[in-house]
Amino acid sequence: xxxxxxxxxxxxxxxxxxxxxxxxxxxxxxxxxxxxxxxxxxxxxxxxxxxxxxxxxxxxxxxxxxxxxxxxxxxxxxxxxxxxxxxxxxxxxxxxxxxxxxxxxxxxxxxxxxxxxxxxxxxxxxxxxxxxxxxxxxxxxxxxxxxxxxxxxxxxxxxxxxxxxxxxxxxxxxxxxxxxxxxxxxxxxxxxxxxxxxxxxxxxxxxxxxxxxxxxxxxxxxxxxxxxxxxxxxxxxxxxxxxxxxxxxxxxxxxxxxxxxxxxxxxxxxxxxxxxxxxxxxxxxxxxxxxxxxxxxxxxxxxxxxxxxxxxxxxxxxxxxxxxxxxxxxxxxxxxxxxxxxxxxxxxx
Length: 349
Known about the structure:
single chain, alpha+beta, elongated
């Protein structure tokens, strides 16, 4: 999971500037903007992210051309940080020259470091943290478990019980976000980004899941790397955890509802299926919007603050975000049935 805050964005800027200087002055490659060029004049991005979910100090992800650095390096010495940046750049360059089917710290990696005049301090720079593994925040884990229990009640055959559980889960999630704002007002709040739903290409089912997840106080962005598309979710730690859990449930639930819809209305084909999924998301989101309309003025104001924070977080995480519009054929009957079933949809655990 990647982390973002104003302080971390400043740290990312520092790492990016340092990486550019190493690429230009030590590796002797041309750097222009946030990209560098190899000897064959092919350009590559300088993508920097910060994380804290593993004990490794740094990594290079070839699918995303991504250089990752542990949050704890904010407090490291300048020399240690620069050596870790050199270490990960060495992985980047050896990937460009030899592909990904080589040993991570094999002959090619060692040879490149030696050619640069980098010794053991660079070669072994990204070793694991010596501190113990991080423990989960007990309060946030408690909120997550409560939401799970309410979602279980929301799948009840008792219509009144299911509706009350859905309302209560939304109220609890909103209250947690409001309380978090008050607690973290004196310190900078962190936002987290996680990639989920890895698949060959973006489709109507992914789009529908993304729209539903936005009702759980997260932003969603579609990303593509290599041969796969991903859905990325961005928000507070507990909201991202809940959204990931909901996405896992919906992967199965949407297929189950489509099979049910096919039998009800004798629906067939990809157009009908896509229209059903998008209609289902519309029905569910309309139901949640109706719940929001009964909130108090304080709760409504809190919702606006949370939404503004998500917009600001998205701007931090995606500096060059572009919007895309989907178009395609549409089946009114399938969409209408999907919308009706979306209004009855509850997230089953």
